[in-house]
User: What shape does this take?
Amino acid sequence: MAARARKSVPETRRVLVILSNRFRPLDEPRFVEIRCQPDGTILEETPLKRRPTKPIYDEVWENNDARQSLDSCRSVKRHYRHALLKPPAA
Assistant: This one.
């Protein structure tokens, strides 16, 4: 009996992008959730109303150049060991 090959569904990553303003630290940061493919192709971009509370994100990125949206960002920094990252799989 021949084994059937399963269709592989590409997994998506959940990325949190924090848009903050280092020049005016009292301004509220903006939070954007991105769903993307493993190769980096953005599938969906959702602005969040408030800071997330649960650690459900695969990656956390931050831009602190006072940009209003992700489209206008020139560079972002990745945060390792951030409080909102998923715990590592055991």
